[in-house]
Amino acid sequence: MPKPAILVARAVFPEVIDKLAQHFEVEHNQADEAWSREQLLAKLQGKAGAFTTGGERIDADLVRACPQLKIVANMAVGFNNFDLPAMTSAKVLGTNTPDVLTETTADFGFALLMATARRVTESEHYLRAGKWTKWSFDMFAGSDVHGATLGILGMGRIGQGIARRGAHGFGMRVVYHNRSRLDAATEAACGASYVSKEELLRQADHLVLVLPYSAASHHAIGAAELAQMKPTATLVNIARGGIVDDAALAQALRERRIAAAGLDVFEGEPKVHPDLLTVPNVVLTPHIASATVPTRKAMAHLAADNLIGFLVHGKPLTPLNPEVLA
Ligand code: GLV
Q: By the 8 A CB rule, do 244 and 221 touch?
């Protein structure tokens, strides 16, 4: 029997290509060329599976144009690049990479929170620019993290990891808001209390966003929400671009209506709103929250194992629309 054909849309660890090649005819993109939508569609012709990284839009038009496609395995926990109902109607399975990145991503959420509250990058830029000529009593004075109130919007696995770090590591009071309230045992393990979104915005000294992107969460933090936050507050977004209205945030930062922000994700990334590049009180990182070598390897292997599990053994590991399997 000929091996099924698959497409790996972006460069990935060579060991993962080797693993896939044991089971599939693999067309890859180890040169990491930027393919247009038309090129992606052309390359997907005749492919039973695709390995994507979150930047490739898998929608009704694409599944219609690629009738042999059976599975798209995202190397990401987020899957807002998938139109899941359209994939389900076309009987295309979608998979993501949950769990393997939870703790690494929660670590990064905390790193960005610390860097933002304690003005780490702003002060480093000052030093590198040769501006540090004397110490002064209020130089880069920021806000405390320990003992402060940590707000978390979106309390899935990563949100819970951040809550545990805040409550148990930094003695923070943790409040959260989520579509559904956690059970009492999970709340106790996270040291977190449920509040309304309005209370969350009002109470948080540091607000971390960890909710999935959807039409419902588009601009969940815009000018009106920023206006409800404390002027001393910091905002951290490790969720998805589009959850924050970046233009409104840049204006709030410029006018010091909140103290600072830490952003790992952006509307229209890799483009960054130009106003964010010119305000000093923001820490900007290029969507790296899950980027440690062991975690990125675990994500890539899980995506590959979903392709092998489904196309070779009929059993994907982390299906998003298991109704396709019925
Ligand atoms: C990264 O943003 C992911 O969704 O895994």
A: yes
